[in-house]
Amino acid sequence: MLELFKKPFVLKSTTALTGVALLGLLGACSSDEEAESLWTDIQEKGTIVVGTSGTLYPTSYHAEDSDELTGYEVEVLREIANRLDLEVEFSEMGIDNLLTAVDNGRIDIAANDIDITDERKEKFNFSDPYKHSYGSAIVRSEDLSGIETLDDLDGKKAGGAATTIYTQIGIEHGAEEVIYDNVTNDTYLRDVENGRLDVILNDYYLQSLAVEALPEIDVVVHPTLAYFPNSQGIIMKKGEDELQEQINGVIGDMLEDGTISDISQQFFGGADVSVEPDIDIEE
């Protein structure tokens, strides 16, 4: 189961002074053109490069006993690329590297359960959301790691990647952050079980399926803690409005015709994460 070049501008001038002046002006224009050219370049290449972790079950992971990359977002991206008449190339990296790779052009877009936030929207473009969820917590079964509310995170050891929203939430509530690189779920869960961690803060749907997939590890998803309603989408470089428009058009079609709902139910145990959950959220 289950989880995106540039054309040189050459000018020949009859005088050095005029050439320098015009090149300066045209250089500024060229920069503007380059900032808007990613969709055209993707079309010319016929391939869109997507960054994802490959370790986040069930949204981006490798099927058991296989090198095949799959997951909710992986399959959503494959269908988006197909409808845009593009090949898709996945580049696997840790979540802490994805936003940098988008910003410096190593990849065209990224998808890895990336929360759409106002702060990130100041620096990047996002697609329309195709997943809605809320925050939960994995804790020890015997005592829920002594956590009832977010305030109880004070002094607890919370595991996660350095740049995630959930790590920041833990820090804001006094948790001691324990940073992991691009590790799989069993590493996190075993460290809660053995006491190296007290809690893992993350997405409810992802956590529920991780615990279900690893029943031999004595941890649970907290039965009452719900916080941080959120939505996820594809992230791309700021100003790539044409690319954003193309992707949003396809996402809209896929939501309307039920394709995203079908993919969700395949990877999320029958749940439709494309609609907002009806749940009481802790403020």
Mean pLDDT: 88
Strand content: 15-25%
Poorly predicted sequence stretches spanning 5 or more consecutive residues: 1-34
Gross morphology: globular
Alpha-beta classification: alpha/beta
Q: Helical percent range?
A: 25-40%
- Give me the number of helical elements: 10
In total, the number of strands is 14
Would you give an account of this structure?
The protein has 283 residues and is α/β, with parallel strands linked by helices. It contains ten helices and 14 strands. It has helices spanning 16-35, 38-45, 72-83, 95-103, 118-121, 165-172, 185-193, 204-213, 241-256, 259-267, and strands at 47-52, 55-56, 60-62, 69-70, 87-92, 109-110, 124-126, 131-140, 157-160, 176-179, 199-203, 219-221, 227-232, 235-237. The strands form three sheets. Strands 8, 9, 10, 11, 12 and 13 form a six-stranded mixed β-sheet that branches. It has a five-stranded mixed β-sheet with strand order 5-1-6-14-7, with helices on both faces. The two termini are 32 Å apart. Residues 1-34 have low confidence and may be disordered.
Summed up, what is this model?
With 283 residues, the chain is of the alpha/beta class. It has helices at 16-35, 38-45, 72-83, 95-103, 118-121, 165-172, 185-193, 204-213, 241-256, 259-267; strands at residues 47-52, 55-56, 60-62, 69-70, 87-92, 109-110, 124-126, 131-140, 157-160, 176-179, 199-203, 219-221, 227-232, 235-237.
What's the structural blueprint in terms of helices and strands?
Elements: H1 16-35, H2 38-45, E1 47-52, E2 55-56, E3 60-62, E4 69-70, H3 72-83, E5 87-92, H4 95-103, E6 109-110, H5 118-121, E7 124-126, E8 131-140, E9 157-160, H6 165-172, E10 176-179, H7 185-193, E11 199-203, H8 204-213, E12 219-221, E13 227-232, E14 235-237, H9 241-256, H10 259-267
Parallel strand pairs: 1-5, 1-6, 9-10, 9-11
Antiparallel strand pairs: 2-3, 3-4, 6-14, 7-14, 8-11, 8-12, 8-13
